[in-house]
Design brief:
Elements lengths: L2 E8 L3 H12 L4 E5 L23 H15 L2 E4 L2 E7 L2 E6 L3 E9 L3 E3 L15 E2 L10 E4 L2 E4 L8 E3 L5 E21 L6 E4 L3 E5 L1 E4 L4 E4 L3 E4 L8 E5 L9 E3 H5 L2 E3 L2 E3 L10 E2 L1 E3 L2 H13 E3 L3 E7 L3 H15 L4 E5 L2 E7 L1 H11 L17 H15 E3 L3 E6 L2 H13 L5 E5 L1 H4 L5 E2 L2 E2 L6 E7 L3 H8 L17 E3 L2 E23 L3 E3 L4 E3 L10 E5 L3 H11 L4 E6 L8 H8 L4 E5 L1 E8 L3 E8 L5 E5 L2 E4 L3 E3 L23 E3 L6 E7 L11 H22 L12
Parallel strand pairs: 1-2, 1-6, 2-3, 6-47, 8-44, 38-39, 38-44, 39-40
Antiparallel strand pairs: 4-5, 5-6, 7-45, 9-10, 11-12, 12-13, 12-35, 14-17, 14-18, 15-16, 18-35, 19-23, 20-21, 21-22, 24-25, 25-27, 26-27, 28-29, 29-33, 30-33, 31-32, 34-35, 36-37, 41-42, 42-43, 46-47
């Protein structure tokens, strides 16, 4: 079904959002079609020349534009326009997923980073040639090795989860001082927020839902700055991809003990000491026992014990049989105050459980290698944990743990089964409010609790793992899906945004996969840290080039700033700051003629435009910061373009036919996509207002003779 609108605006930055405010306030049925909001404005840390706003970030300014446009009544659909076709006096606008009809089109889409178009540039993109130098997050938790690690505490020896579901080495850890905006993002299911800088790229997609057919399709995956995420964006969390089976473990190797034949001996043996087999089979029985320990186990000086309600006779018997069968030791049962304890007295067994799974409930964890075991084995871990710390509730299963690491490890294991768990943190301070007493003893929680809930579409799969039939399966008539697993990714809708200011250290990693997981979703690591103590070249003379030079001067040993003119086009304050950097060399009136290397960039050829001399400079990386250019794909052949592929407009923002100097009715353009001389946020906003007013006048003139979109209903 083709939807009709009075005005369709292509682009969601300053010009497009301003145009939408004006058309919507004049009661025109307005649609904005855009891949993202904010355009290049979001890269601006400090907007100091927009009237009425002192030192506001570009991302925050664009958010205000968006809020005002929506408040005026504009509709925003996040989709990429592929084609605009004249259809009589109307236009057919095609996106990747839909088609729309309109009488008026306002083109306000932005630009892409401009290529320097020199030999070697395309060949070395990602191998020394970059278009971004300034993306660093603040201290946050990452999924690393066993589970969550704070980024400021992480070590170079760690491995982190990356976008392809594998754990990759960390090549470098960076930090810098930061003074600016942070974005706090909460997703569905994983309720603890992730905090990062507003310009940090996040891997996103869009989900197009058809509620009537109960189907959905997804858009392409793309990188989007955190500051410009919207509630329509869906974040991606990778599912651990590799399966590595481990058939057995060696006790002597884990404990650093002495093996005596097939057995392991205690370091200090007495006449009551028991030697046990050095070889422990990693089978379903051992892993179910591991699950029991993770939920109900504890270690003493000489023993490992498991604690159950005295009525849980099946689990008590199972634990006793497992201990005796695996370790060939007698298990002892003791019941006190309604609790039955199952214990084996062996320093070796005690040390094994302590070493593998931790000591004390808040410190329990699953060894990293167990995260890759086959599902047939991992389900036994889940089963054991649930039997100890789980329960059946009205509509879901719930597992409660005080171990933060274990909660997130369970999440990663359950995702491998196609199960989407919800994790909720319940803080001890809130839990301790208004608590009563039992037997004269005041109840008190010493640790935060993590509730892992499995219900909805995942309920049936969890039943299969636990071998338990949940009563909700027989009662429910429909299943609501609020997240999806597609192509080894969990697709997580955004629940909440918050913005806050921060001044202090921020951190970043460089990984083999160029990505890592900031607790709940994939983020990109930046190129700049790759060049610590190396030599780089920056091409450009505007603010973005000057900003890059300032940042890279703190990282690289030497920075060449190459500009084709004698003077810079950026702010004088930035120029003065760059000139003060001792390791920045200005190479003016010069251009790069070639980027050379083998597998990576090794050098550049630089031509002096005054002397015509060419010299070769050894560099490790090249940052291209020469602005942005128009992508003419959707407008070529539709309207007149100048030599830079910019849309030619008149003073009323009207576009022309491609082959003659005659206005093409119904098409308008505004902002950086046009041939206007000045490219500023305030100018783009003004041009957007002009285009909107011109479109309104055009529609008003024809409304008496033709139906415009839903004009008849207004």
């Amino acid at each position: 079904m083709i939807e009709n609108y009075d005005v369709i605006i292509v682009g969601g930055a300053a010009a497009g959002l301003t145009a939408a405010i004006y058309t919507s306030r004049r009661r025109l049925n307005t649609l904005i079609l855009t891949k993202d909001l904010g355009g290049q404005a979001i890269l601006t840390k400090h907007v100091c020349n927009y009237p009425g706003f002192l030192n506001v970030t570009g991302a925050d300014l664009m958010k205000r534009f968006e809020k005002q446009a929506k408040g005026a009544g504009a509709e925003i659909i996040f989709d990429e326009v592929k084609q605009i076709l004249p259809d009589g006096t109307e236009f057919l606008v095609k996106t990747e997923t839909k088609e729309f009809k309109t009488r008026a089109v306002i083109l306000a889409f932005g630009k892409i980073p401009r290529s320097s178009n020199v030999p070697g540039e395309d060949r070395f993109i990602g191998k020394g040639v970059s278009y971004c130098a300034t993306c660093l997050p603040p201290g946050e938790e990452l999924v690393a090795n066993e589970s969550l690690r704070k980024i400021e505490e992480i070590g170079i020896s760690q491995k982190v989860l990356t976008a392809d579901g594998s754990f990759q080495d960390i090549n470098q850890i960076m930090s810098r001082d930061y003074d600016g905006e942070l974005i706090k993002i909460k997703t569905r299911f994983f309720t603890e927020p992730v905090i990062l800088t507003s310009d940090h790229p996040v891997l996103v997609t869009r989900v197009n839902r058809d509620y009537y057919k109960r189907t959905f399709t997804i858009n392409k995956y793309e990188w989007k700055n955190a500051g410009m995420l919207t509630n329509e964006d869906v974040l991606l969390y990778p599912i651990i991809s590799k399966t590595i089976d481990v058939e057995k473990i060696q006790l002597a190797e884990i404990l650093g003990a002495e093996a005596n034949g097939r057995n392991v001996r205690n370091r200090q043996e007495t006449h009551t000491s028991h030697r046990i087999s050095n070889e422990i089979l990693v089978n379903e029985k051992f892993l179910r026992l591991a699950g029991y320990y993770l939920s109900e186990g504890g270690v003493g000086r000489q023993q490992v014990s498991f604690y159950f309600n005295k009525n849980e006779k099946e689990y008590i018997s199972d634990t006793k049989n497992l201990l005796e069968g695996i370790f060939s030791l007698k298990a002892h049962l003791k019941t006190e105050s309604g609790v039955t304890r199952v214990s084996v007295f062996s320093k070796l067994v005690r040390d094994l459980f302590h070493s593998l799974f931790g000591k004390g409930a808040p410190n329990k964890k699953i060894p990293h290698w167990m995260l890759f075991l086959p599902q047939s084995k991992q389900k036994e871990i889940i089963k054991g944990i649930f039997r100890g710390d789980g329960c059946v509730r009205d509509k879901d299963f719930c597992i409660v743990t005080t171990s933060r690491v274990l909660a997130y490890q369970l999440r990663d294991i359950l995702l491998r089964f196609g199960i989407i768990p919800s994790i909720e943190k319940r803080e001890k301070a809130k839990l301790n409010k208004n608590l009563g007493e039992i037997g004269g003893r005041k109840i008190r929680f010493n640790y935060d609790k993590y509730h892992i809930r499995i219900g909805g579409p995942s309920l049936k799969k969890m039943c299969e793992i636990l071998e338990v039939r949940h009563p909700e399966l027989d009662k429910r008539k429909r299943i609501c899906k609020h997240a999806w697993i597609v192509n080894n990714y969990l697709l997580l809708p955004i629940r909440e945004f918050k913005r806050e200011t921060y001044k202090g250290k921020v951190y970043n990693l460089v990984t083999n996969g160029n990505t890592y997981v900031a607790k709940n979703f994939v983020v990109h690591n930046c190129d700049a840290p790759l060049y610590k103590n190396k030599v780089v070249a920056i091409v450009g003379g505007g603010n973005s080039a000057l900003d890059a030079a300032i940042l890279l001067s703190k990282i690289a040993s030497k920075v060449y700033l190459i500009h084709r003119r004698d003077e810079f086009r950026g702010f004088e304050s930035l120029v003065e700051e760059v000139k003060k950097k001792e390791n920045v060399e200005l190479v003016l009136s010069s251009i790069i003629t070639e980027i050379k290397g083998e597998n990576v960039v090794k050098s550049i050829l630089v031509k002096d435009l005054k002397t015509e001399q060419i010299k070769e400079i050894a560099v490790d990386g090249v940052f291209v910061e020469i602005g942005y250019e128009v992508r003419p794909d959707i407008v070529k052949g539709l309207m007149k373009l100048d030599e830079y592929n910019q849309i030619v407009v008149n003073q009323k923002c009207q576009a022309f036919y491609p082959d003659r100097d005659e206005v093409r009715p119904g098409i308008f353009a505004a902002g950086d996509v046009t041939n206007i001389l000045f490219k500023q946020i305030v100018v783009a906003a003004g041009e957007g207002a002009k285009a909107a007013l011109a479109a309104y006048n055009y529609l008003h003139d024809i409304k008496d003779t033709q139906v415009v979109g839903d004009w008849s209903k207004k």
